[in-house]
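Notes from hallway chat w/ T.B., transcribed later so I don't forget. T.B. wanted the structure written out for a chain they're using in a teaching module, and asked if we could keep both sequence and structure tokens in one place. Agreed to drop them here.
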Amino acid sequence: MTMPWPMVHFLVSENLYNGNPSPNLLLGSIAPDAIHMRGEISRQEKGITHLVHNDQFPAVEVILDTLHTYLEQKSEQEWRGFIIGYFSHVYTDVMWTNTVYEDFENNFNGDKMDLRRIYRQEVSQLEFDLMKSSRNRKVTGFTSKG
């Protein structure tokens, strides 16, 4: 599984709150990847922070149901911001892996040994382009159950 970089998660957070995400939302949006600060971690350890089960991402319905379960635990805005950021991260990783990365891998015509290196170069450029064009995008589905 190859997932997006932090700037993509910040962009999603920005769009969730029309350009005005709270610090807690931003922190939550990168929290699942904080496990990297432990040094060398296994794929299974990272999977725990991303709700991966049996080497599979969760279904979108599971992500949203789990999000709402956590949102119901506390009413404080700081908590809600962090939780929305956290689950938007997991959701974004699922969507990215199943679309952007899968399409890249399927359409890659070069030497398979170069796939990851070229992917990282492409993602770096894509993040830059996304940030430039982000002002007119909206992401929905995380702020209310329905």
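Follow-up for T.B.: Residues 77-107 form the longest helix (31 residues). Might be a good example for the class.
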